[in-house]
Amino acid sequence: MIKINDINLGDFPILLAPMEDVTDPPFRYVCKMFGADMMYTEFISSEGLIRDAAKSVKKLDFEEFERPIGIQIFGHDIDSMIKAAQYAERANPDVIDINYGCPVKKVVAKGAGSGILNDIPKMIKMTKAVVNSVSLPVTVKTRLGYDDEHKEIVDIAERLQDIGIKALTIHGRTRTQKPRIPADWTLIGEVKNNPRMHIPIFGNGDVIDAVSAKYFKDNFGVDGLMIARGVYGNPWIFKEIKHYHKTGEILPPPDIAERIRISMIQLSKSIEWKGERRGVIEIRKHWADYFKGYPNFKPFRVRLMETESFDEIQIIIDEIREFYR
Predict the structure, then answer these.
(1) Would you call 102 a catalytic residue per the annotation?
(2) Which of 7, 102, 136, 260 is catalytic?
(3) Alpha carbon of residue 154 to chain centroid
(4) Looking at the structure, do residues 141 and 196 belong to the same domain, yes or no?
(5) DSSP codes joined into one string, 104-145
(6) End residue of a domain, out of 195, 223, 247
(7) What would the DSSP string read from start to end of 234-263?
(8) At which of 195, 224, 247 does a domain end?
(9) Band of residue 145 on the pLDDT scale cut at 50, 70, 90
(10) Mean pLDDT of 207-228
(11) CA distance linking residue 150 with residue 145, whole number of Å
């Protein structure tokens, strides 16, 4: 049984990665419906949070249905990270997660996200300060290292564990590697098999379906998997992975009716959380993923991307249902 402190995650948990503009409460809701064992908020700027910036504070929202839930924060200033962690703790999540993995240039340039992998002593100092500032368990998500010459994750993992983190997620790329480069799981496995390590180690990178999930589970010994890009338009992936692990059977892909049902649940939740206009606009990024691979879908997608009306979406969805019947 895998635990973060007293949080029971099951025998082999499948986690939803924190992703900016993707893992908001409406999308997390449908992922939880299909068995995500633990989920995280979009990553939240420590500076935005302590300044009470509306966008940052809004990201703290979650429903009880989503538990266990982690709030992920990032930043470059240790004092700001302490204050942000304490602010996030007041929202009463299950864990505080620190983002040392974001590769976005503007984040890295400030020494935040995976940029801190250029300054490991500061990374350790910041983590210890956050751990000591809150009563909730603190976890970390990071990468193998900054670049190919500095893949220091085995040492980093030991040092992070020693100063009190309760779980570690490792993305199998360096900061400088592009997503098209296959993730390297060998060092993730080395961290997990290090006899000094006793906290849960979760692997992340190229988990795109049930077969790839089982491969990483069987070959690298990790305690669980975290899914990022593999979940785009595919909240069913959690159910599919668990079914395949249990039975060896690959479930058939969801049909058009199921894709419509789940996408409309997400849309309804999006409107409930953000209001109609914003909810309709912000689900646009998901339409192509939900209906990926369906022939002649482009005209429908164009219309879905242009409308700002829930009623108009319902009309288009009815046409989609009829067209692919």
Answers:
(1) yes
(2) 102
(3) 22
(4) yes
(5) -HHHHTTT-GGGGGG-HHHHHHHHHHHHHH-SS-EEEEEES-
(6) 247
(7) -TTHHHHHHHHHHHSPPPPPP-HHHHHHHH
(8) 247
(9) very high
(10) 97
(11) 5
**AA identity, residue 260:** I
Say if residues 272 and 241 touch (Cβ distance below 8 Å). no
Q: Model-level pTM? A: 0.95
C-alpha to C-alpha distance for 186 and 241, rounded to whole angstroms:
22
* Domain range enclosing 243: 3-247
- Tell me the DSSP string of 198-220: -S-EEEESS--SHHHHHHHHHHH
CA distances in angstroms from 92 to 67, 70, 143, listed in the order given:
11, 9, 27
Write out pLDDT tens, residues 226-266. Answer: 999 999 999 999 999 999 999 999 999 999 999 999 999 99
Cβ-count burial 83-98 (b if 16+ within 10 Å, e if not): bbbbbbbeeebbbbbb
Amino acid at site 208? I
For 198, counting Cβ atoms within 10 Å of its Cβ (0-12 exposed, 13-18 middle, 19+ buried), the class is exposed
Q: How many domains does the chain have?
A: 2
Amino acid at 167: A
Asked if 235 and 270 sit in the same domain, the reply is: no
Pick from 29, 26, 28, 72: nearest CA to 49: 72
For residue 195, the domain's CATH number is 3.20.20.70
Pairing of strands 38-40, 14-16: parallel
Element (H, E) at 303: helix 298-306
Look up tokens 């004092």; give the residue: 79
What's phi and psi for 21, nearest 5 deg?
65, 15
3-state secondary structure of 322: helix
pLDDT per residue as tens digits for the range 173-206: 999 998 888 999 999 999 999 999 999 999 999 9
Answer yes or no: do 167 and 227 share one domain: yes
Q: What is the CATH number of the domain that holds 292?
A: 1.10.1200
